[in-house]
Design a protein that fits this description.
The structure holds two protein chains of two kinds. By secondary structure, chain A is mostly helical. Chain A contains six helices and two strands, in the order H-H-H-E-E-H-H-H. Chain A is elongated and about 80 Å long. Chain B is globular, with a radius of gyration of 21 Å. The chains are: A mainly alpha, B alpha+beta.
Chain lengths: ~130, ~240
């Protein structure tokens, strides 16, 4: 048992490494709670049911993109019969979700995805702010 | 499932008839968007850049001072330069300005070469662009005989001073050009508006209309006045006409 010190220090290093994610999350205050989204104040219903939007908004947006760019249409009729102009910045952001930083970005950052939509489509808030 | 020879022939014949009928109806009721530019009227408005400003503002076209990185949808050239091979040196309007933009050709060479169909010819004649699909290969720029296309060599956003949130910007690595304002032609509630440049022109030098309609103002103008197109010998069939 002359290697006791070596074994215990090795075990301590091993345990430290194995539990590192837990320590790291504790020190940076990461919780299991999802992102805190700012929801629209007025509108209660999105263009499609909440569950569908949560899981498949990207498919819906790609479908809108194809219909606007390739087929040249702009009008979208939702399930409840309401009509919407298929447009990311003027409809999604300006009518409901305000700045993308409070809604889109919070969830995308949480899920660690960076969709390229915003390389071209403008965030309405900075634009409106600079115009004032 | 079996099918008799008679039924097969009948179905084939009917399909061919239906396809032909669809094409015939399309030719009668179709749309062919085109533009006519009255050079003399344009000359009267000295140093006017209203159409350029309106277009570039509406479509978030960056104003990059370095000419090798310049992006433009519509710009001013001299008639002499735009029509080198058609106008002789004694023509009186040689120095007049000629607004040049994408010609929305009948046989667009850019569409032929695009490997991703990011640019294509719509049924109404407009050579449209899908910036989502553009991979920045610049084949279309090499194919276009009019130099109507610009490439984004860098992120254009720092050079867009007053962005229009209604229209997206482009990103580094895509090609862009005039789209004949397809977004305005759809219009809210189905009311098409003329392109931004046509609306901004105070001298009424730009006329936009449907060539397929024999009673449209553009058809009447073209019937009454002498007009030329850029490089007609190439067979691209430009849909931008210059009234000279």
């Amino acid at each position: 048992m002359r290697d006791r010190a070596l074994i215990y220090s090795g075990l301590a290093v091993f345990l430290g490494l194995v539990t590192f994610p837990a320590w790291h999350n504790l020190s940076t205050h990461v919780t299991a709670k999802g992102p805190d989204l700012r929801l629209p104040a007025r509108e209660k219903q999105c263009v499609a049911p909440l569950e569908y939007m949560r899981s498949s908004h990207m498919s819906l947006l790609i479908d809108w993109r194809e219909r606007v760019v390739r087929a040249g249409g702009r009008d979208f009729t939702a399930l409840d019969g309401k009509h919407y102009n298929m447009s990311l910045t003027p409809t999604c952001l300006e009518q409901c979700h305000g700045a993308k930083a409070d809604f889109c970005d919070r969830c995308h950052n949480y899920a660690a995805v960076s969709p390229p939509c915003w390389n071209c489509h403008l965030d309405s808030k900075p634009v409106l702010r600079s115009a004032r | 499932m079996t099918i008799s020879r008679k039924a097969f022939l009948r179905m084939s014949g009917l399909s061919c008839l239906a396809a032909a009928a669809q094409r015939a109806i399309g030719a009668i009721t179709g749309t062919r968007w085109a533009m006519a530019i009255d050079v003399a009227k344009c000359l009267k408005q000295e140093n006017c850049t209203k159409c350029i400003v309106a277009c570039h503002q509406a479509h978030n076209v960056p104003s990059i001072p370095d000419r090798s990185h310049e992006v433009r949808w519509i710009w001013k050239d001299s008639l002499d330069h735009a029509f080198q091979e058609q106008l002789d040196e004694y023509y009186s309007l040689r120095a007049a300005p000629a607004m040049v933009l994408c010609n929305h050709c009948e046989n667009p060479p850019c569409v032929r070469v695009c490997p991703t169909q990011a640019t294509w010819k719509r049924e109404d004649g407009i050579v449209a662009m899908d910036w989502h699909r553009c991979i920045g290969c610049r084949y279309c720029m090499a194919a276009c005989p009019y130099g109507s296309r610009s490439f984004n060599w860098m992120d254009p956003r720092p050079y867009i001073h007053n962005p229009n949130p209604e229209f997206p910007t482009r990103t580094k690595g895509v090609v862009e050009k005039c789209t004949f304002c397809t977004e305005r032609l759809v219009g809210p509630g189905g009311h098409p508006r003329p392109p931004a440049c046509v609306e901004a022109c105070s001298g009424k030098a730009l006329v936009f209309g449907n060539l397929a309609d024999p009673h449209s103002p553009i058809r009447e103008l073209l019937a009454a006045r002498r007009h030329i197109r850029r490089k007609p010998e190439l067979g691209t069939g430009p849909n931008v006409f210059y009234i000279v």
